[in-house]
From TrEMBL:
GO molecular function: DNA topoisomerase type II (double strand cut, ATP-hydrolyzing) inhibitor activity; zinc ion binding
Family statement drawn from the similarity comment of this UniProt entry: Belongs to the DNA gyrase inhibitor YacG family.
Metal-binding as UniProt keyword: yes
Subunit structure: Interacts with GyrB.
Protein name, as recorded: DNA gyrase inhibitor YacG
Length: 70
């Protein structure tokens, strides 16, 4: 057995562009192009992406103070 380190192989990224599915480009990662990055930003700004929120109620069934309302 030798005491030489085992060379590591470069790890291939399996993540694809979340907009079109092509391989990501290093300068705009995780997207493949500036266009796909802009499409994603536009979706956030137009509120196409949303995080689900549930209203919290207190013991009386009323909305708790500080809870968001739509």
């Amino acid at each position: 057995m030798t005491d030489q380190p085992i060379p590591l192989k470069p790890r291939k990224s399996r993540a694809a562009c979340p907009i079109c599915g092509r391989p990501p480009a290093p300068e705009v990662k995780p997207f493949c192009s500036a266009r796909c990055a802009d499409v994603d930003l536009g979706r956030w700004l137009n509120e196409s992406y949303r995080v689900p929120v549930t209203e919290e109620t207190d013991e009386d069934g009323e909305t708790a103070p500080g809870a968001e309302r739509d």
